[in-house]
Amino acid sequence: MELTLVLLVVVIALTFEYINGFHDTANSIATVVATKVLSPGQAVLLAATANLIGALAGTAVARTIAAGLIDSNVVAMTPMVLICALLGAVIWNLITWWWGLPSSSSHALVGGLCGAALAAASGNWNAIIWAQGGSHWWGDKGVVPKVIVPMVTSPLGGFILGLLLMGLLFSLMDWLGSRTGPLQRFGRTRFANSFFGKAQIVSASAMGLSHGMNDAQKTMGIIALALAGATAAGTFDQLPEWLHFLRIPEDLDHNFEIAVWIKVVCAITMAAGTSAGGWRIIKTLGHKMVKLHPVNGFAAESASATVILTCSHFGIPVSTTHNISAAILGVGVAKRANAIRWTVVERMVWAWILTLPVSALLAWLLLELARVVGLA
């Protein structure tokens, strides 16, 4: 029974990764599709390749998910607890996808983990690592420094970078246009579309890379956590030798390693989800919020990728959705404030605010239901 539950965790985690593919990877390619620089098929192929490379580049975010948010000394993250955490995140992702709202899969997963852990610990809030370690009062480990603070600061950084970069590009084109050069002969709009259409392929690749380094690693962390727990519990002791690749060292804090097969499977699963159904999100980001041209897409993608890659380096599981949305917003404001459709922005912000508490509540209720029916 225990082995079945562990394998079910892996299946549900990969389901979450697949949904993340059409829910969040759509965000990373929305601008390059909306500006018509790449066709949907080309954008998906680019995103899939960049995701795979990013997913194989480090494990800092996976380590945070596996060992930096929940205190294993207070609550045991059993397979059923992890299943309820994942299902809470999956349900919320599907709801927001159906509504076409670019909410955060990252925060849905963190909310699900916290809600399920609290339910498993009978409401003991010490089950959640709020802040630990480091020389600052907020620490360098826990929900506050790794989730709550970046939830505000990373989109703000994306907005400011998008605004500044777009303003800089406008100034540069105006300066070039005042002299003999390509803009005077070719025309500002045609030059911008031609040059930044090519440059946007680079920025879109950076978005795919950053998405793989951050989002794909979250599911890796869940799978590693489940397999490490099962290894410690002796669940895999009777398995044949050819299945020993499932065993993961239980000491996640000091001997943490993500197996290559986990990285590759997660990356491929996310790529498959990307090709399946991200068009509701793409429509909201690429068309409804602000009209985008290649120069706008380049600025938004460059700003967002910079923030996400920086956070990935420090093991911070930020939201691709929040960052690209904020960057697009900054780019739109640089054009003019009334270029933004603020009613769409308002709906998105409400989805962001509700994601953590709603996914946590869903995971809590699912674990309580599992207890009632005798599964936990």
Summarize the structure in words.
With 376 residues, this protein is an all-alpha fold. It has one domain. It contains 13 helices and no strands. It has helices at 2-34, 40-55, 60-67, 79-98, 105-120, 143-177, 182-186, 188-232, 260-277, 279-288, 294-313, 320-335, 342-372. The mean pLDDT is 82.
Strand content: under 5%
Which ranges are low-confidence, i.e. pLDDT below 50, for 5 or more consecutive residues?
Answer: none
Q: Mind telling me the C-alpha Rg?
A: 21 Å
Q: Largest sheet, if any?
A: none
What's the number of domains? 1
Shape field? elongated
The counted number of beta strands is 0
Q: Would you tell me the structural class of the helices and strands?
A: mainly alpha
> Helix count?
13
Helix content: over 70%
Describe this protein with a few key phrases.
single chain; 73% helix; 376 residues; elongated
